[in-house]
Design the sequence.
């Protein structure tokens, strides 16, 4: 992976780590905090996945990344060491079990996504990426009165944040 891409990853993840670990009062709406940080984590994720695996399609990079880190992901879940991660993963599964995740991007004909197994890293990343796409390109609103949207956004951010930390620590890109 080239130095430029490594710096992109470090920059976006450090922004998220600073904000997520901060106890200071946020200068903007708390609901936007999670949406912003989900997008920041997605930028780092995309930069990492493409830089590491060099596949033309993001879905190919996601599958390769998932195969590479599936055992570590499963160990993270089974360790019960990160309560916010565990709670977010459970919330994500619960929401998707209630109603599979539609693709809200214009002119899409992709089927809704379900989540049969919360230990399936590939499916988790696919769901998070769809939530990100719905947020940026579709009609997913950052609106506290729409509880499902907020649960999906907050949970996706927390899960992806910990997945990225797991991967980047193993790769030696962060400490």
Sequence:
């Amino acid at each position: 992976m080239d130095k430029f891409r490594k710096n992109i990853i470090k920059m976006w993840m450090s922004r998220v780590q600073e904000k997520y670990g901060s106890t200071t009062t946020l200068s903007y709406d708390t609901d936007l905090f999670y949406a912003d940080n989900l997008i920041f984590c997605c930028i780092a994720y995309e930069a990492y996945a493409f830089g590491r695996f060099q596949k033309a399609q993001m879905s190919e990079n996601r599958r390769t990344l998932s195969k590479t880190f599936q055992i570590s992901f499963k160990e993270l879940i089974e360790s019960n060491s990160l309560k916010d991660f565990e709670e977010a993963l459970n919330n994500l599964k619960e929401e998707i079990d209630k109603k599979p995740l539609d693709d809200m991007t214009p002119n899409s004909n992709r089927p809704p996504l379900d989540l049969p197994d919360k230990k399936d890293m590939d499916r988790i990343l696919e769901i998070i990426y769809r939530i990100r796409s719905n947020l940026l390109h579709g009609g997913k609103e950052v609106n506290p009165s729409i509880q499902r949207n907020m649960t999906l956004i907050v949970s996706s951010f927390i899960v992806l944040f910990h997945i990225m930390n797991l991967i980047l620590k193993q790769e030696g890109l962060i400490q």
